[in-house]
Design goal:
Elements: H1 6-14, E1 21-24, H2 31-42, E2 45-50, H3 66-77, E3 86-91, H4 102-109, E4 114-118, H5 122-125, E5 138-141, H6 147-153, H7 157-164, H8 168-173, H9 175-188, H10 192-201, H11 204-225, H12 228-246, H13 263-275, E6 279-285, E7 296-305, H14 308-314, H15 319-323, H16 331-346, E8 352-356, E9 363-370, E10 373-379, H17 388-396, E11 402-406, E12 411-412, E13 416-420, H18 424-429
Parallel strand pairs: 1-4, 1-5, 2-3, 3-4, 6-8, 10-11, 11-13
Antiparallel strand pairs: 6-7, 8-9, 9-10, 12-13
Helix pairs in contact: 9-14, 10-11, 11-14, 12-13, 12-16
Length: 431
């Protein structure tokens, strides 16, 4: 399955300042597959080791003698380790004592070797007391397949190219194909195993079974890595997200978890889910100005699920409600916001927030910053183009231009650009 992150991996390989690479991301987003495929296509050979429950590597990092470690990796994998010619992949490295810390010595004492590591819940492990090689590693974040990558997987590269080239005139003609593919993506999502199952079987029942398997695996991971007390709180937060997003005001409310719930009870649970890559935490800004981070309100935020397909599985949304235009009530807006959030983050947006005005109903679904430019964003689930909050905001903030994502065609107006929902990630990639 072709993934967009490969172009970044190639840049990493060719960089003169290359350091050991940590590929971050939630479990089952395809990290191991991508690293192995990248290695096969760009190196003479790949030395792959899974460090999880592997007795052969139990003492691999007992000291930081890099000559011994390199020779051991070669012996375990049966590969000849050649500087610059071999990609060493250490999967689930967080399961080995001193595994993460060893990357410092790969950087300092064996920089001629190309090393990439991946591991589920790696972000959580970073906070568990093990020395982390700050400044000695390169880091990338991997997400589920974006809609663009979903089009690639379906063999619709031609449609993706039209979006890349912003051929809005031609896209109007093929809009029915794109909307159908987008609604498929709404139900299927971007988890590689789920997408593969759909492409091979075209069976929506199997798709939902795969999604539920992944959700069950996530809950098992929670039980594996934290105390019983923390498990309960993490699961409360995780399971509440669909209902939180179904509210008119999608701000996360602790009282939904239990009567009288407070931040101090659940902030660790929320951070665990964020570190694990299972949720995206989008904070409020109380002022829309550069830099946005200066105006972050840490007490107000929304939580979105890493994948829209998994969100649909969590609340058992029927396929018919996603595959055809239908009335999903208030949850439709939250679902579409979840989709847009994932697309923006996977396209490289790092400064992403939402905005609401004190003592007012005025709210922007998202605001993002690229260099010195701020983009106020409103999300519409269908073709409704009424944007009262966005219009009011733009009128009050001269010089800003709104962006609206909807099922309607591309439209340039004097105060707003309407971008089709199928073009979210690609539109911002080129800005």
């Amino acid at each position: 399955m072709e993934r967009d992150i490969v172009k970044d991996l190639i840049k990493w390989k060719e960089s003169k300042d290359r350091k050991p690479l940590i590929l971050l991301g939630a479990r089952q987003v395809g990290k191991t597959y991508v690293l192995n495929q990248f290695g096969k296509e760009n190196y003479e050979n790949v030395a792959y080791i899974n460090c999880d429950n592997n007795l052969q590597v139990s003492n691999l990092f007992e000291d930081y003698n890099m000559e011994r470690i390199i020779l051991s990796i070669g012996a375990i994998t049966g590969e000849t380790i050649k500087p610059g010619k071999t990609l060493i992949i250490l999967d689930e490295i967080q399961e080995q004592n001193k595994g993460l810390a060893s990357l410092k010595y790969f950087c300092e004492n064996a920089s001629e070797y190309h090393v990439a590591v991946a591991g589920s819940l790696l972000g959580v492990t970073m906070h568990n007391g093990e020395s982390f090689p700050v400044g000695k590693v390169n880091m990338m974040h991997m997400y589920p397949l974006s809609f663009k990558e979903f089009l690639w997987a379906k063999g619709k590269q031609n449609l993706s190219v039209l979006i890349d080239e912003k051929r809005w005139d031609v896209l109007k003609v093929v809009k029915p194909q794109l909307i159908q593919a987008l609604r498929e993506y709404y139900y299927i999502g971007g988890m590689p195993e789920v997408v593969k199952s759909y492409l091979e079987s075209n069976d929506l029942k199997k798709v939902r079974e795969k999604q539920l398997d992944i959700l069950n695996a996530y809950e098992m991971d929670i039980s594996k890595h934290v105390s019983t007390q923390d498990v309960v709180r993490i699961q409360q937060v995780w399971r509440s997200i669909p209902s939180q997003l179904a509210k008119e005001n999608k701000k996360f409310i602790y009282g939904v978890l239990k009567k009288g719930g407070r931040a101090k009870e659940y902030e660790t649970a929320i951070q665990w889910l964020v570190d694990a890559g299972l949720v995206y935490k989008i904070s409020r800004v109380n002022k829309v100005s550069v830099p946005l981070a200066n105006y972050e309100d840490l007490a107000a935020f929304k939580l979105y699920v890493l994948d829209c397909g998994l969100l649909g599985a969590m609340n058992n949304t029927p396929a018919s409600m996603l595959l055809i235009q239908s009335d999903m009530g208030e949850s439709k807006g939250g679902f579409t916001e979840n989709y847009v959030c994932g697309q923006l983050l996977s396209s490289g947006q790092k400064s992403l927030y939402y905005y609401s005005k004190e003592n007012s109903r005025q709210e922007l679904d998202f605001v993002c910053q690229n260099d010195e430019i701020i983009y106020p964003i409103e999300v519409k689930a269908e073709e409704n183009l009424r944007s009262k909050s966005l219009r009011t905001f733009v009128d009050e903030n001269k010089g800003m231009r709104g962006s609206r994502f909807s099922m309607a065609d591309y439209i340039e107006q004097d105060w707003v650009t309407n971008v089709p929902l199928y073009a979210v990630s690609q539109y911002f990639e080129s800005i």
